[in-house]
Amino acid sequence: MLTSLVAVSTLFFGAQALTPSNIMRRTDALTSLKYTGVGAQGTYMQVTNLLPGEFPSCTISPFCITSEKEVSGSLAPFDDEMTLAFRGPMTIENIAVYQPISNTSSATWSRVSNWAKGEEATNLVFMNNEGGNGSGEWSICAGNSQSYADDAWTGGAAAPTTSSSGWLPGGNEINIMTNQTCEAAECSGFSRGTANHGWADSKMFVFTFDMPSSSDASQLPAIWALNAQVVRSAQYGCNCRGEGANGGCGELDILEVISADTPDQAISEIYSFKGATGSGANTFARPTGASATYSVVFDVDSDQILINELTEWDYTQTAVTRSLVEGYLSSASTTVPFNDNLSRRSEILGAHRRRHHH
Ligand SMILES: *[C@@H]1O[C@H](CO)[C@@H](O)[C@H](O)[C@H]1NC(C)=O
Ligand SMILES: *[C@@H]1O[C@H](CO)[C@@H](O)[C@H](O)[C@H]1NC(C)=O
Ligand SMILES: *[C@@H]1O[C@H](CO)[C@@H](O)[C@H](O)[C@H]1NC(C)=O
Ligand SMILES: *[C@@H]1O[C@H](CO)[C@@H](O)[C@H](O)[C@H]1NC(C)=O
């Protein structure tokens, strides 16, 4: 069905938006959430250096060196390179990333990265925060950098590898980057250890996964996107995320189970230097049984971010049309404006803190 949909969209190349036929609709859960008016002019504290210190104690203060970075424009700061992060318990079956071929309004978005369980990845590297084990680095002040994730997705490895089972055990985290290193081409902001580029400007991530129930109530799965600078310094340390009053360089919680009291519900939240908002009382359904497919579109042209649960996705397609992307953007969604003058909401910060504590 999808294959023919894409064929039809090709006929209308550059024409009006299509109505996609694969958006999941549920009566009892959110399946489509759109953030509008995302971009803003503002500043965040960019990490410019991270001093390692000397074992056994960090005596350097400050060791996290930052400098104010001003950004502006449509989708800012989510037009910067982003990474996608996952926390188990979860099985990941497929991941694909699509981007406009030349500029944000290109009629074709081509598949730039992809991976399927048990196969080699194309322009996609699995990382975790185990630097010092196999790859990357660890220091007393800065802690663990990124490392290549091992094939069990629990530890570090010396070289990029992929998982044959797609199983991410509860409490473990991985994130994806392109295969281009910061050594080969300079990355924005400070980077150390095993550091690669993310996906900049407009991008669409599509992924199929499940989040099985866990007998350990403390294991709450989540999927989120971060400014790639965050993981290149320290996801859980010195970074530009700016939890708290200063705001930051961009985080989108896509699907996050936040409480053992509501283990079948997942929320979304968005954070930048201009504040925070989210799905509020509306929740996505945690896919505990059958796997689910989600897409997340970061669209510079329309200044919107769209999270959709899909009924299916044809991962063999090497391109999609801009009109299909516009079809998703113009389909019925729960719409949350990311206004210019939001202040951080305490209940959102509460959820945020829970997630970021191990
Ligand atoms: C964007 O790319 C398309 C080709 O995909 C081209 O026709 C168009 O002129 C480009 N627009 C800009 C502003 O560069
Ligand atoms: C990155 O992946 C692409 C596609 O698989 C490949 O052609 C390229 O050689 C890789 N580059 C590096 C630096 O590994
Ligand atoms: C390396 O991994 C082991 C086992 O997971 C862990 O105990 C150790 O703390 C790690 N070392 C560093 C430097 O992170
Ligand atoms: C933003 O909010 C503050 C405090 O509520 C208010 O004083 C200010 O006028 C608002 N600015 C705009 C542009 O609405």
UniProtKB/TrEMBL annotation:
Residues covered by the Cell wall protein YJL171C/Tos1 N-terminal domain: 32-100
EC number: 3.2.1.39
Signal peptide: 1-17
Annotated GO MF terms: glucan endo-1,3-beta-D-glucosidase activity
Cell wall protein YJL171C/Tos1 C-terminal domain segment(s): 108-322
Enzyme class label: hydrolase
GO biological process, alphabetically ordered: cell wall organization
Keyword tags: Cell wall biogenesis/degradation, Glycosidase, Hydrolase, Signal
Pfam families, per the entry: YJL171C_Tos1_C, YJL171C_Tos1_N
Record field: catalytic activity: Hydrolysis of (1->3)-beta-D-glucosidic linkages in (1->3)-beta-D-glucans
Family (UniProt): Belongs to the PGA52 family.
Name assigned to this protein: glucan endo-1,3-beta-D-glucosidase
Native species: Wolfiporia cocos (strain MD-104) (Brown rot fungus)
